[in-house]
Amino acid sequence: VCKDYVYDCVYLVIDAINATLHINFPLTDVEKLKELEADFRAASRGGCWEGQVGAIDGVHFAMRAPSKKDVPDPMKYFVARKDEYAILCIAVCDAHRRFTSYDISKSATTHDSLAWEASDLGARVAHGELPEPFFINADSAFTLSNSIITPSGDPALDAFDYHQSSNRMPIECAF
């Protein structure tokens, strides 16, 4: 078969998956948030990590360079620091490495924290819709807030950074 037909088939599959797969972070479902938190706490070393309901990170999925026929601005997909064309995905997962949220609507050149803040879930979390005491665990590419925990970078807080990093690993493994 020709290459164009293969691409048509791939996009038909993607459209079918998007039409049937519904991944929704339970932002307003306190009972579900308690379940997510209990799973992260149980998975933490010594069960001492409390409040986490998600692990977040961004990933670039490399791709072939699109043409102007494919997209209006092919350079929107070029990531100079990686010297490749890519799609940016910002995602949140649970303690079992299952995705609970994802967003691929931002340009691959967008910084992870800006892509998160511009996503629907990120904007809602930033507006305080994630109830206390719950938080999402992130790496240093994200902005520390009441709802987002990031590494301290302070040598005096090495134990905190160790637990913070350990409990963020599910998203790394999910990707």
Number of E-state strands: 6
The percentage helix is 25-40%
Number of helices: 6
Over all CA atoms, what is the radius of gyration? 18 Å
Shape: globular
Overall pLDDT: 92
Instruction: Tell me the quaternary state.
Output: single chain
What fraction of the residues are assigned to beta strands by DSSP?
Answer: 15-25%
Terminal residue distance: 31 Å
> Which residue ranges are poorly predicted, with pLDDT under 50 across at least 5 consecutive positions?
none
Order of helices and strands: HHEEEEHHEEHH
Describe the main β-sheet briefly: 6 strands, mixed
Class based on secondary structure composition and strand pairing: alpha/beta
